[in-house]
Amino acid sequence: MKIAILGCGAIGGLFLGRLRRENQDVVGIVKDYQRDSLVKDGLIIEGSDGRQNIKVNVDTRLREKVDLAIFSTKINNLEEVINANSRYLKEAILVTTQNGIKADYILCDHFEKSKIVTGIVMFGATFYAPNRIVHNFGDGLILGNIFDGKTDSLEKAQDLLSNVFDTSSLENIKGAKYLKLFINLNNCIPAVLGLSMQEVFSDLEFAKLAIELNKEAYKVIAKSGIQLRSLPTYPKERIESLVSMDINQASALFSKIMTSLSKEPLYGSILQSIKRSRKSEIDYINGEIVNLAQNNNLQAPLNERIVQAVKKVEESGNFLDKNEFFEYMNN
Fold first, then answer.
1. Which residues of the chain does CATH 1.10.1040.10 include?
2. Residues of the chain with CATH 3.40.50.720
3. Is CATH 1.10.1040.10 what the domain over 178-330 is classified as, yes or no?
4. Which of 95, 168, 185, 255 is the most buried (most CB within 10 A)?
5. Minimum mean pLDDT among 64-68, 69-73, 145-149, 214-218: which range?
6. pLDDT tens digits for 228-239?
7. Could you confirm whether domain 2-171 is CATH 3.30.565.10?
8. What is the DSSP-derived secondary structure letter of residue 113?
9. Which of 112, 96, 280, 237 shows the shortest CA–CA distance to 174?
10. Alpha helical stretches, state H, the chain
């Protein structure tokens, strides 16, 4: 199969490196500023497997038809990437990997629903431009079809990708996508502060705010009639237990979990975008909770305020310190 990875930052870079290491016919579609470094110096991946330097094939756009395309660009850039490469994607199996739940719906405006495979990545990575990736944790990949359940495209994608990740499939992947939203929901706090997950959540005041964001989001999702679906390594009972706990107990547990995720500094996807002066995906994570609340005549003031805080940092380029952060959140 001819494979394309559309967007080669943290997640896409891991797909590109893993597939190339398996001698697959794969091309990475990258930004202009990445191309020369990747061609000259290769893709550098660091993590539990040590340091690897992988020779990869890259370009700034597709130039021939492919059989499988993995969309790993930020959700904000999906339309641009689709429009630039659609002529070579009409017959391809299309895999989404974005956070939030909107990516598949964007693709279905351009392609057949049966061709779309919904992906949930259960690993974390940090991208150091232009060609270095640190694989922080995890190796899981869950696939499904948010529209039609089991399809031929899903089976083919799973057969191929099971060679490079710990891959499984789910029928009710929409409920699982909403559960994954909780894993990403706390990226917003380190993004406003410009710090790693470990630095931020070692402070119990920030851990407490994270629990309050999760409690609010859980209420909105439950009252909107959405049924969460367990992920293979993250049962829905975990978030149900966390949001029902005493706030101090939950904060201490959350702090312990987040500070032990990775030995390397872990920067969420939102902060990684801000550091590269790019628009983040906040509207599709915490913003998804805000929109869901509005559509169902509910309130989500904490998530709404944190969305505003992230956008304030995006626009100004200035991170907030702890005092500024809580002053902003409380106003």
1. 178-330
2. 2-171
3. yes
4. 95
5. 145-149
6. 999 999 999 999
7. no
8. G
9. 96
10. 10-21, 32-41, 78-85, 103-107, 152-161, 173-184, 188-193, 197-201, 204-223, 236-244, 247-259, 269-275, 286-295, 301-316, 322-330
